[in-house]
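User: Here's a chain of 238 residues. Predict its fold as tokens.
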Amino acid sequence: MTFVCVAADKIHYLTKSAIVDTLRRSAMEITRRVYFILLSLVAVWCGLIIAAPLINGVSESAGSLVYQFFSRICHQLDERSFHLAGGKFAVCIRCSAIYFAFFAGIVLYPFVNITLRRRRGATSPSQKNLLIGNLPVPTKNVGTPLLQQGGEKSSSLLRPLPSRRWLLLALLPMLVDVFLGFTGIHASTDITRLVTGSLFGVVLPWYILPVLFESLESLSKHWIRTSKGEPSYARKTE
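Assistant: Prediction complete.
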């Protein structure tokens, strides 16, 4: 009888462990899929911006729909826009720079993370204890509390949220350029619009993607705790 009970407990444990491992792998796969879905959507968005004059050249009605769609987010001034095949892009130079740089940032995001992870791992053996699964985590100023928990393998796409000062520093040149042009102190040029827009756009993924992936990570950990029969949120006991 004792043997049967032990065997039943063992089977139950192995089954629960298998479910947890499956959920963990599924969560990591979902994170990767979300990354590629987002990358594809941004690629389509940027593609429409470039393709707008080409579409307009084939069908003015279809082209007008594209321009009308983007007119809600951009002034679309002809003298402040890139041109292709005799027509302007769907948005101005500054907006184009932001979107294209944002796309480039998303493409570079995993490669930069891999480089940083390898560099941290190669600096000294003491860095080994800073790894949570495949994720390098600094000892101080970690942007997200979730990363401090450890114990569960995290997606390699997840990384700490950078300091907000870098976002402000990337935004500041664009604000200064807009302010100087608006007040008439110094007219902005195509170069300043391109550079300031690109600087801001390429930084954005490092603030948007960590929040998105952390939300997915939190959801996956909720699933894992639920499958283990643990409470999702710790409650204080009196």
